[in-house]
């Protein structure tokens, strides 16, 4: 396995980094969709995540990495073990947060899991072989070029991402197991749209662009070259920055649940959503959650208008009722609405 | 065999690397560049991703054989046909071993089998876009990750990919995501004399040296500047150019790049990626940061000065800039003439869409595999091995006992007739909605306006369904396919808005055009639905002459042909009040009739939905 390029060494792309950090802080945000040109570091950012995430506690030996704290959401196997343990606690182990790549061309059986053929053929035993969804439980599932993934697999992914449970009924096996993960999709809109019905199922959406200043471009080349020459030395250079981000995430996770959104801030956020005519309450809820996570990452004591303005494009731009024939992009419309609601004040 | 050693094997490379020498003709420069690409690829290999050869298979084949001769003996060299399936390209279940052992066993596909070597993809334009994207991600990773058919495996696959692109101008060639990862694109592959290439020993020495070569101070600033100036969005352009320059220095026996290396790399790697021309020298320097936000110099804000990486070269010195200028000139000189013309035209128009025409031709999946069903594999149906094994699995013990009783000997696996499963495919039947719009004088301007409103409603509906749409207009004596099937709805709307009106009503010609287009669309695997917007006052016959009776008879004949083709249709009557004649045409077409006065958006969408259902 190759070493992943460090997150903190990615030049620019603040919006994408913010979205991923929000998702790392609050997994319930509902996934991140990253749109952008080729070669802008989309995959790099996602692959850099494992190094940032603090490890988690999981029930030892559980194939799904069940959370010892979540009694309700456990797999059948853990439930059976717990029953057999007669009230004794199941052993717990530290485990790295999974960041699972879904390769294009993956088939449904590998995604959801299927009958374990080897066991079936050899021992005549009906056993379930967990798929990638099980592996991604409590972590991230990354689909590069999600717009090229088969439609039925995208549907399946979004469905499981929303319910947090994978229900398998195939090959005569009947299994359900928890599968809570942050779905991160990336795609290049020029190579095929994502079906609009699916877009607003992602919590946040990000548009990445290549930096256009020569200085930034130069930094990209220099850092990449340094990394390729001596990855170990490069990682050491960035270790301190990586650690800083890791600490930010840990602190933000502790803090996020306690943060309150003051009524005036909330009111303005609702006004913004109305101004934009976003469908349903999902947009508003996501906006709130994202603002809270953003404030927590900042180490702020309150959620303020500034946080709202920072996350509004991420949370709302893909939920606008679309007028196909209006070429104005979602980002522009959100910017305009923000200016209308919050005034032209410069954004922090 | 080793190529003969020329007196000065590096001379052609120098010619390519040096300033465009006045003596050499354009053809010589092109040959020298193509020869350099061979030498650099032989040295840099997988680090450079590979090459797109836009030429005939024969020309590309000659180029490739020269490359092959420069590579060390035993370097893997495999071909990947454009029709290869995922399991063959990447890896999958090994049939023979799996059956023999009863244990699912992974098998490497072509890409991992060629690890450390070269994969040639002929006819890359025929390869499915999704497949090309998957190959691109393998190049990125240097490994194949197989998650299919019960296999979970990871194989190393650091390969040099050589794609032969024989597409016509209006065809989509290699897809952008794959092209982005291949360092070189050769538009037309000139003949290269083997004597122009360095000997194999030079290549071997260069490969050994490559890891130690470092860029000189001006190298990265020059590449960064050129990337911005030529509008190259992907950061991979500069990255690959840098690697090509390193290979060039290694080839020349140096441990540091020089200006020539950078100029050559820029010509080979950056020129084909250009999307704009740099601003003329008298205008302000490229990309002055917006005035409201002064650009802070690197390092980035979030990083303290104290822990700035020590061995990162300092930010670009603003002095000099000679190499920058030279690289800009070199790239501009190396731009293929067609690309240069496009870029110039684009610069004059202000902006435009480059290369979009091809992208709209993106292919859809024909015959997506959706699973398996019981059946015997034969010539037309392919076995789904995994599902067959799954079906056989529960019975293994019982069958083994039975076999023991009969003494048929030791078998590991018992598969019976009823276990066989075959792959099931569905055609991904997208819909293409053809709007056939009557722009004749009789469909008065105002009515046409209303019809346009109706069409816009339908366009919005088509968008959410991911339909393709096409536009045919008819007036005067002919019908014209204004917009071939596309998803570019904004363009359809623009065309519709600009649609001129007036003239006769050549309804027969319109129906004929619709029949042809719809049948063609069906051949590409989509379901056509035709929406006619007309008042049905046909007054121009097929031969282009006027005459109401003739015109009507021709239109009825055309409608009968249309109906025989079995294409679903809706006729929206745009006359001020429902017209029996229009209704008669709708009947003859075998479609639905909707009079416009009764029309609201919902009713219209409903009518088209019904037609869509009927089409399936």
What is the topological layout?
The complex is a heterodimer of chains A (348) and B (616).
Chain A: H1 14-25, E1 32-36, H2 42-47, H3 49-52, E2 56-59, H4 76-84, E3 92-95, E4 99-101, H5 108-112, E5 113-115, H6 117-123, E6 128-130, H7 132-135, E7 139-143, H8 151-163, E8 165-170, E9 173-178, E10 181-187, H9 196-199, E11 204-208, H10 214-229, H11 231-256, H12 263-276, H13 282-298, H14 305-316, H15 330-342
Helix pairs in contact in A: 1-13, 10-11, 11-13, 12-13, 12-15, 13-14, 14-15
Chain B: H1 11-17, H2 26-44, E1 50-54, H3 57-70, E2 77-79, H4 86-89, E3 91-93, H5 95-101, E4 106-108, H6 110-113, E5 118-121, H7 129-141, E6 143-148, E7 151-156, E8 160-164, H8 176-179, E9 184-187, H9 200-209, H10 219-229, H11 236-251, H12 259-270, H13 322-334, H14 337-349, H15 356-359, E10 368-374, H16 385-392, H17 396-406, E11 421-426, E12 431-438, H18 445-465, E13 468-475, E14 478-486, H19 489-497, H20 507-523, E15 527-534, H21 548-564, E16 568-573, H22 580-589, E17 592-595, H23 601-615
Parallel strand pairs in B: 1-8, 1-9, 2-5, 5-8, 12-13, 12-15, 15-16, 16-17
Antiparallel strand pairs in B: 3-4, 6-7, 10-11, 13-14
Helix pairs in contact in B: 1-2, 2-3, 2-9, 2-11, 9-11, 10-11, 10-12, 10-13, 11-12, 12-13, 18-19, 18-23, 20-21, 21-22
């Amino acid at each position: 396995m190759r070493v992943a390029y460090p997150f903190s060494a990615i030049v620019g792309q603040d919006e994408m980094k913010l979205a991923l950090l929000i998702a790392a802080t609050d997994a319930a945000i509902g996934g991140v969709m990253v749109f952008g040109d080729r070669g802008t570091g989309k995959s790099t950012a996602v692959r850099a995540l494992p190094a940032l995430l603090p490890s988690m506690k999981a029930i030892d030996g559980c194939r799904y990495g069940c959370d010892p704290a979540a009694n309700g959401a456990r797999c059948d196997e853990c439930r059976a073990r717990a029953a057999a343990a007669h009230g004794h606690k199941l052993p717990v182990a530290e485990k790295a947060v999974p960041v699972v790549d879904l390769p294009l061309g993956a088939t449904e059986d590998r995604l959801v899991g299927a009958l374990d053929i080897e066991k079936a053929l050899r021992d005549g035993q009906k056993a379930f072989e967990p798929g990638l969804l099980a592996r991604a439980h409590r972590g991230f599932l990354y689909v590069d070029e999600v717009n090229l993934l088969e439609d039925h697999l995208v549907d399946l992914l979004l469905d499981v991402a929303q319910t947090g449970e994978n229900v398998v009924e195939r090959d005569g096996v009947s299994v359900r197991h928890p599968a809570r993960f942050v779905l991160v999709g990336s795609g290049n809109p020029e190579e095929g749209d994502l079906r609009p019905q699916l877009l607003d199922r992602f919590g946040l959406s990000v548009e990445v662009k290549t930096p256009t200043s020569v200085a930034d471009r130069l930094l990209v080349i220099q850092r990449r070259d340094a990394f390729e020459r001596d990855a170990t030395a490069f990682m050491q250079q960035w270790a301190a920055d990586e650690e800083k981000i890791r600490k930010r995430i840990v602190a933000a996770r502790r803090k996020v649940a306690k943060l309150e959104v003051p009524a005036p801030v909330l009111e303005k956020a609702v006004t913004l959503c109305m101004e934009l005519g976003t469908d349903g309450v999902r947009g508003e809820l996501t906006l709130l959650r994202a603002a809270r996570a953003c404030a927590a990452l900042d180490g702020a004591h309150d959620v303020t208008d500034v946080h709202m303005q920072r996350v509004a494009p991420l949370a709302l731009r893909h939920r606008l009722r679309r007028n196909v024939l209006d070429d104005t992009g979602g980002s522009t419309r959100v910017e305009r609405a923000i200016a209308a609601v919050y005034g032209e004040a410069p954004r922090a | 065999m080793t190529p003969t050693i020329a007196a000065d094997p590096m001379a052609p490379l120098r010619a390519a690397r040096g300033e465009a020498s006045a003596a050499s003709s354009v053809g010589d420069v092109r040959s020298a560049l193509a020869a350099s690409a061979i030498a650099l690829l032989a040295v840099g290999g997988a680090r450079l991703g590979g090459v797109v050869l836009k030429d005939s298979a024969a020309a590309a084949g000659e180029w490739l054989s020269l490359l092959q001769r420069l590579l060390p003996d035993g370097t893997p060299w495999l071909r990947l046909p454009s029709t290869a399936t995922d399991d063959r390209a990447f890896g999958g279940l090994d049939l023979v071993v799996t059956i023999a052992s009863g244990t699912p066993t992974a098998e490497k596909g072509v890409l991992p089998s060629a690890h450390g070597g070269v994969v040639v993809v002929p006819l890359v334009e025929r390869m499915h876009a999704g497949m090309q994207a998957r190959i691109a991600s393998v190049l990125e990773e240097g490994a194949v990750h197989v998650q299919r058919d019960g296999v979970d495996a990871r194989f190393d696959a650091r390969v040099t990919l050589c794609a032969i692109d024989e597409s016509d101008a209006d065809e989509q060639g290699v897809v952008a995501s794959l092209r982005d990862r291949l360092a070189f694109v050769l538009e037309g592959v000139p003949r290269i004399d083997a004597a122009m290439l360095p000997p194999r020993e030079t290549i071997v020495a260069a490969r050994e040296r490559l890891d130690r070569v470092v860029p000189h101070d001006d190298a990265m600033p020059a590449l960064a500047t050129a990337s911005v100036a030529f509008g190259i969005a992907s950061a991979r352009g500069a990255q690959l150019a840098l690697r090509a320059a390193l290979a060039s220095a290694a080839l020349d026996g140096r441990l540091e790049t020089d200006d020539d290396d950078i100029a050559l790399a820029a010509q080979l790697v950056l020129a084909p990626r250009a999307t704009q021309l740099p601003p003329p020298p008298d205008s302000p320097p490229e990309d002055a940061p917006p005035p409201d936000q002064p650009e802070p110099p690197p390092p980035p804000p979030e990083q303290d000065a104290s822990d700035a990486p020590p061995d990162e070269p300092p930010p670009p010195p603003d002095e000099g800039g000679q190499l920058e200028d030279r690289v800009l000139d070199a790239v501009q000189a190396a731009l293929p003439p067609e690309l240069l013309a496009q870029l110039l035209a684009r610069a004059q128009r202000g902006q435009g869409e480059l290369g979009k025409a091809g992208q709209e031709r993106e292919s859809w999946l024909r015959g997506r595999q959706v699973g398996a069903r019981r059946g015997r594999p034969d010539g037309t149906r392919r076995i789904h091995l995994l599902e067959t094994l799954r079906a056989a699995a529960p019975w293994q013990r019982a069958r083994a006992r039975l076999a023991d009783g009969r003494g048929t000997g030791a078998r590991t696996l018992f598969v019976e007739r009823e276990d066989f499963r075959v792959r099931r495919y569905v055609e991904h039947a997208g819909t293409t909605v053809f709007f056939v719009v009557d722009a004749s004088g009789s469909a008065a301007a105002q009515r046409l306006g209303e019809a346009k409103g109706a069409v816009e409603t339908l366009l919005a509906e088509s968008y959410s369904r991911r339909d393709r749409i096409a536009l045919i207009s008819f007036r005067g004596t002919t019908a014209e396919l204004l917009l071939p099937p596309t998803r570019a709805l904004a363009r359809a709307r623009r065309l519709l808005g600009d649609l001129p009106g007036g003239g006769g009503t050549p309804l027969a010609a319109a129906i004929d055009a619709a029949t042809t287009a719809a049948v063609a669309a069906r051949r590409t695997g989509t379901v056509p639905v035709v929406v006619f917007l007309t008042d049905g006052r046909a007054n121009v016959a097929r031969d282009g002459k006027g005459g109401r009776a003739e015109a009507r008879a021709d239109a009825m004949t055309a409608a009968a042909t249309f109906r025989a083709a079995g294409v679903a249709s809706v006729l929206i009557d745009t006359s001020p009040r429902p017209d029996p004649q229009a209704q008669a045409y709708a009947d003859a077409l075998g479609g639905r009739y909707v009079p416009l006065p009764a029309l609201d958006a919902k009713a219209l969408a409903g009518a088209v939905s019904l037609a869509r259902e009927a089409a399936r």
